[in-house]
Design a protein that fits this description.
Strands 1-11-8-15-6-3-2 form a 7-stranded antiparallel beta sheet. The protein has a 4-stranded antiparallel beta sheet with strand order 7-12-9-10. Strands 4-5-16 form a 3-stranded mixed beta sheet. The chain has a single domain, classed as Jelly Rolls (Sandwich). Helices cover 14% and strands 24% of the residues. The chain is an alpha+beta fold and 274 residues long. The protein starts with 39 loop residues before the first strand and ends with a helix. The chain contains 5 helices and 16 strands.
């Protein structure tokens, strides 16, 4: 990973002069979020500013038919929507969603233990998923005052979610249900997602907890005591005032859809969105 300009976990914290560099850890364990169930990781500066701008350009210039307009926000799905929890269009993701994100996801070992004599093939986060890699990307646009209700991602996906944030920061809230099954309205944790960062949730966080985003213009009460990943932020000084004024944030959510239509792989163009 040295050729990508990565720094080790023990390296210096990113500064204004180094923020455009990739900051890949030696393993995901080095970026595990403290205090959360073990399988939650945060990597600041997972992509560079130049890569971020290139992806944003592709998102913004996508054909209009690619966007689905919801009540308060809009989204894109690649390579296609799901029908009855099945990925109909089984073609590979476009290059601009594959590179550099997927290549880096598959290059970072889950932990520091040696799983193979071939160090070029580490046991990555998707190593045990059905397709060995993400095959679906959901792109969400979150203007200020826009959020999403607490929810679980469901059974259509392998229980690993990798989210790359672009353009702006916001807080993701994590919730759990009460003993009677009702949702506890108070989040158990908050995770602050910076531009160019990667958040990975899996295991217990995927199956037992809900996640959501408050529809607000400003995230408040930000501190080491209230933000679970504060120690892993790329630039915590940007939030020393305790607030984050939201701007338009784009999220790329990478997952492996469990069921893929064989018919769709043969007749993909029939189901293709532009």
């Amino acid at each position: 990973m040295g050729s990508s300009g990565s720094e080790s976990a023990a390296g210096p914290s990113p500064s204004s002069s180094s923020v455009s560099r990739v900051n890949l850890p030696p393993s995901l364990e080095a970026r595990r979020i403290p205090g959360l169930p073990r399988a939650a990781y945060y990597i600041a500066n997972f992509i560079t500013e130049e890569e971020e701008q290139a992806i944003l350009h592709k998102v913004e210039t996508a054909p209009k038919a690619r966007w689905r307009q919801l009540t308060h926000r809009r989204l894109q799905t690649w390579p296609s929507d799901l029908i009855k929890d099945t990925l109909v269009d089984a073609r590979p993701l476009p290059d601009w969603l594959e590179k550099p994100v997927v290549a880096r996801l598959l290059s970072i070992p889950v932990d520091d233990t040696e799983h193979s004599n071939d160090e070029s093939q580490p046991r990555h986060i998707f190593a045990e998923s059905p397709h060995g890699r993400p095959n679906h990307v959901l792109i969400n646009e979150y203007p200020p005052n826009t959020g999403i209700m607490p929810h679980k991602d469901g059974l259509a996906y392998y229980p690993v979610v990798c989210t790359v944030s672009l353009g702006a920061s916001l807080c993701l809230n994590l919730y759990r249900s009460k003993d009677d099954g009702a949702l506890d309205p108070n989040p158990v944790w908050r995770v602050l997602q910076e531009p160019r960062s990667l958040l990975i949730t899996t295991g217990e966080l995927y199956t037992d907890y809900l996640h959501g985003i408050d529809p607000i213009a400003i995230d408040v009460d930000l501190s080491p005591d209230t933000v679970a990943n504060w120690s892993l932020l790329g630039d915590s000084s940007a939030f020393e005032s305790g607030i984050n004024e939201r701007k338009v944030r784009i999220s790329l959510t990478y997952r492996d859809v469990l069921k893929v239509s064989k018919l769709g792989s043969k007749l993909g163009p029939m189901f293709k969105r532009p």
